Amino acid sequence: MTALAGGYVQSVDWLAIAPPTVAAVAALAVLVADLFLAERNKPLLGWFATAGLALAALLLLPLRAGDRSTFCLTSDPDVCSYRADEFAVVIQFLVLGGALLTALLSMSTVHNRGSKDAGDGEAGAAGHADAGDAAEGGKLPAGEFWFLLLSSAAGAALLPASRDLATLVVALEVASLPAFALVGLRRGDRLSSEAALKFFLSSVTATAVMLMGVSFVYAATGSLHLSRIAAALGHVDPRLDTLAQAGVVLTLVGFAFKTAAVPFHFWVPDTYVGAPIPVAAYLSVIGKAVGFSGLILVTVLAFPAYADVWGPAVAVLAALTMTAGNVAALRQRPERAHSAVRLLAWSSVGQAGYLLVPIAAAGYADSSGDAAHAIGSTVAYALMYAAVNLGAFAVVALVSRTHPTGRLSDYRGLYATRPLAALALGFFLLCLAGLPPGVIGLFAKVTVFSAAVDAGLGWLAVVMAVNVVIALYYYLQWTAVLFRAPAGAPAPAAEPTAPATPALATRAVPASLTAVIGLAAVLGVALSGAPQLVLRFASGALL
User: How far, in Å, CA of 386 to CA of 276, rounded?
Assistant: First the structure.
């Protein structure tokens, strides 16, 4: 099919752009359908959104075999704005698969008619103020929620295939702007409003800085296409060298914010706590995939000539990020409200530091093949992290149905009431820690560690090893809590009484929530049995 514009005929590969296009069309369809559906039929919107994401993900299958490009310059067909290569397809698989699990995780939150009872049990008896917030938090506007989720997923799927800075910025904002609204969608909730405002203001500032960097790069090179920028920066006018260096650094700021790299991480804990749990899970996985894919594209494809600038900078960011995240997670108090989500939030900051290590290693690579191998390590780690982190948030969503305060101490004795959920959460935490039986987590960390050593970044490998040990403490501490006796368990000689957490044992679990926990666990177990499949799949994403 062709599109006529300005006297030039340009071919459009509709199959190449199908995944983000289907997600965007599904978003518009949900928004229109919401106007005509009765309130009792609103759950259909969730299933339609899920089907749209599933279809978008299935459309990646015919793209896995080859390299497809579209929106190319008529004067140079090799310079394109959209390229569905193996790197783009793998990241799109991560994004759309993660969004699909997020949609399933959101079903019970968006369409929970029994949300008024969410504060019953422990929180209701205690009269905790957060119980009411939790109850209202279950009443999210269905049409707006699914439209925003699908719109953000469409932007996130567009970004890894973008091959010019203008499309990258547009895709980044399409993925980000709906996320702001999703965070603040719980109307009347103070925490949600504050989290959305903080997220929005800090993100807008980072975007403004990034746009200034893009303008500097354009001024120094005369192009926005990544391939042409790379060629122009190889022999930039010496009078423009300082401008080009400033543009490179400022452009990285926006993507560093999306990856929650220090010092652009301060929005993470409050945003995750204020957002609905499915939205926090979405930000922790899809938000990072967007940031890291954009960071990889601009560094490895557009700025290889300035690797001596961004390589050391990313290495320092990696060391600071993993240290700040793990130390902050270590300091979380079990009795503090929302401490479970806060720990996962700070843990995600620490995990972002590990993900930055191979990107830094790519800056020190001697050849494009070495750089591609390092990037494959980042993609492999991101795939592992996405599966187990979404699973961990799913168990948190399960427990929060009866313990709206979200404290780590609420998980004590979970094995006695929900043994399968406790085993699943323990497995996810061990994967994040890199301990058996979570072999996939250990394999991913060894792969990242090897990338640092191969690049000659011994000091960064040492910092990573120290941080892995720090992270072991809080992951194992949470895992141990799951298998302790419940806090209110009766003494052996006492008359039998109801356990302290009866709601966990009696309240039915939505099938969609069970499906997310089960899928994440099955995926983690399968990959732990054959971890080399992840690296082989990610290594196909060579740039």
Answer: 18
DSSP letters of 47-65? HHHHHHHHHHHHTTGGGSS
Q: How far apart are CA 193 and CA 186, in angstroms?
A: 8
Amino acid 356: pLDDT = 93
pLDDT of the residue at 428 = 93
**Which residues are 162's β-sheet partners?**
82
- Give residue 121's identity as a one-letter amino acid code: G
Tokens at 436, concatenated: 């058996």
Q: Which two tokens stand for residue 236?
A: 């930039």
Q: Give CA–CA dist 385/426, Å, rounded.
A: 15
Structure tokens at 117: 């009872």
Per-10-residue mean pLDDT of the chain, 543 residues long, equals 46 87 94 88 90 94 82 82 88 93 88 45 38 47 91 94 91 91 84 86 88 92 89 85 89 85 86 91 90 90 88 92 93 86 93 92 75 82 90 92 86 89 92 86 88 89 94 92 73 45 55 90 85 66 51
- Determine the residue type at 499: P
Amino acid making up residue 293: S
Report the distance separating Cα 293 and Cα 296, nearest Å: 5
Cβ contact 22:59 at 8 Å: yes
How far is it, in rounded angstroms, from Cα 177 to Cα 175?
A: 6
The pLDDT value given to residue 193: 85
The reply to whether omega before 437 is within 30° of 0 (cis) is: yes
pLDDT of res. 491:
47
SS3 content of the chain, % helix, strand, coil (to 5): 75, 5, 25
Please, are residues 108 and 393 in contact by the beta-carbon 8 Å criterion? no
C-alpha dist (Å) from residue 116 to 41, 124, 146, 182, 402? 19, 11, 22, 21, 12
Element (H, E) at 81: strand 80-84
Task: Give per-residue burial for 425-461: e unless 16+ CB within 10 Å, then b.
Answer: bbbbbbbbbbbeebbbbbbbbebbbbbbebbebeebb
Report the alpha-carbon distance of residue 468 to residue 445 in Å, rounded. Answer: 9
DSSP per-residue letters across 462-494: HHHHHHHHHHHHHHHHHHHHHTSPPTTPPPTTS
Q: Give the integer Cα–Cα distance in Å for 357 and 221.
A: 28
Quote the pTM value.
Answer: 0.88
What is the maximum alpha-carbon separation in the chain?
90
Which of 328, 341, 361, 176 is closest to 262 using CA atoms? 328
pLDDT of residue 305: 87
Compute the distance between CA of residue 23 and CA of residue 501 in angstroms, rounded to an integer. 40
The values of phi and psi at residue 47, to 5°, are -70, -35
Q: Which residues pair with 4 in a beta bridge?
A: 9
Give me the half-sphere count of Cα atoms (radius 13 Å) on the Cβ side of residue 223: 19
Are 418 and 505 in contact, with CB atoms under 8 Å apart? yes
